[in-house]
Amino acid sequence: MLIKHYVSLLALSGLSLLSHAQSFNKAKLDSLLTTLASHDKAMGSLTISQNGAVVYSRAIGYESLNGTTKTPATPSTHYRIGSVTKVFTATLIFQLIDEGKLTLDTPLATYFPQLPNAQRITIGQLLSHHSGLHSFTNDATYSTYFTQPKTQAEMLAMIGQGKPDFEPGAKFSYSNAGYVVLGYVVEKITKQPYAQALQKRIINKIGLKDTYYGGKTDPKRHESYSYRLASSWQAMPETDMSIPGGAGAIVSTTTDLNRFAEALFAGKLVSEKSLARMQTITDNGFGMGLMRMQFGAKRAYGHGGSIDGFGTSLGYFPEEKLAVAYISNGQSYPLNDVMLGVLSIYFQQPYRLPDFDAKAPTLAATDLVPYVGTYASTSIPLKITVSAVGATLQAQATGQPVLPLTPVTKDVFSYDAAGIRLEFAPSRHEMLLKQGGGSFLFTLE
């Protein structure tokens, strides 16, 4: 399932970095990936490239698990990249702008007048998530049809039925619907299916060998399935790729993603002016197709992605000419924390490898009573209901699924797959939610 809102993976501004490292501790990076794999914390591929050359590439876990048949992942494994697709879509749009075929101010009504506020929504607002178009992936009904094929007409009708979230340009709200529509705009102008425009304008142009518009997973092509960890890795349902389109339907490898980022920033795909617009951040860390990712004093641009059980991070550091791509097809440890470890090791920052052998406290049902209740926050419009089922503590945010929590220490619980940490202070009737670099105080109602 497409993620509703993707938080910058590299919001680690508190670090003080050294100058760019000429070498890094590859053995330590190997140890990080090995411990993640051996403890069933992650499966996937990592590639680091500098100055156009691969300096590190490794895969862990499996691209396919079918009973006793296990196909190990390799750096050539193909993964669904989710919302990193949006960078490709934005690139296609800016190519058309460079060719004078549309502008950032072109109204959406030029192509799809039937959509809400189409006369007042611009291409630029779609690119920067300021259109107000309601994102269909936020609806509860999405889970009832995301595995079924949809035509463009059906998708447009569905998007058209959604009530706008706000007036065009009024504010930022991450919208998968906006980028699905941008993909359709590409098709209208080029008179080609999105897959063909992608092939001609990006893939063939820069020589990508393992990137394409996805379909039903084909293990014969070394396409990976995605998994979630229960008592073992369990296969996740597959989104039908007719639905995410220009918002999330591309399949690629970590090596190809790095090549794409390098080509984009080398001026091989769009003009210098267009690349600058892609990097111009308005709010929430987003520009027009690119996100700003901060690692201490160093700045990267890229995007994150999530679809089914896949998680992706692509970042490019222009000053260092460094590209880092990580794609996971199974994670029970936060992707953000994996990237923190990777970058800390690469930039020779102090970093302690995670200790997954440390024993979590054993709690009885009676130990969980002080945490149970509904918590509200004045900083975000969200309530979290904490409940106990036997000796397991659970948390459920408004409109979201129930998450089983793992005890870390006294009064501290986590849900590692989403990078969530809950720190309780029962005597004060408070709970601190930590996720994605942010901390939010909640009070027991």
Task: Explain what this protein looks like in three dimensions.
There is one protein chain. The protein is 23% helix and 27% strand. With 445 residues, it is α+β, with helices and mostly antiparallel strands. The chain folds into 2 domains: 1-358, 3-Layer(aba) Sandwich (Beta-lactamase), CATH 3.40.710; 365-444, Lipocalin, CATH 2.40.128.50. Strands 17-16-15-14-22-21-20-19-18 form a 9-stranded antiparallel β-sheet, with no helix packed on it. Strands 2-1-13-12-11-10 form a 6-stranded antiparallel β-sheet, with helices on both faces. Strands 5-9-6 form a 3-stranded antiparallel β-sheet.
What is the distance, rounded to the nearest whole angstrom, between the alpha carbons of the first and last residues?
32 Å
Largest sheet, spatial ordering of strands: 17-16-15-14-22-21-20-19-18
Average pLDDT metric? 92
Structural class: alpha+beta
Tell me the overall shape.
globular
Overall tally of domains = 2
Helix content: 10-25%
As residue ranges, the low-confidence spans are: 1-22
- The CATH homologous superfamily of the largest domain: DD-peptidase/beta-lactamase superfamily
Domain Beta-lactamase-related: 44-333
Protein name: CubicO group peptidase, beta-lactamase class C family
InterPro entries: AmpC-like, Beta-lactam-related, Beta-lactam/transpept-like
Pfam family, one: Beta-lactamase
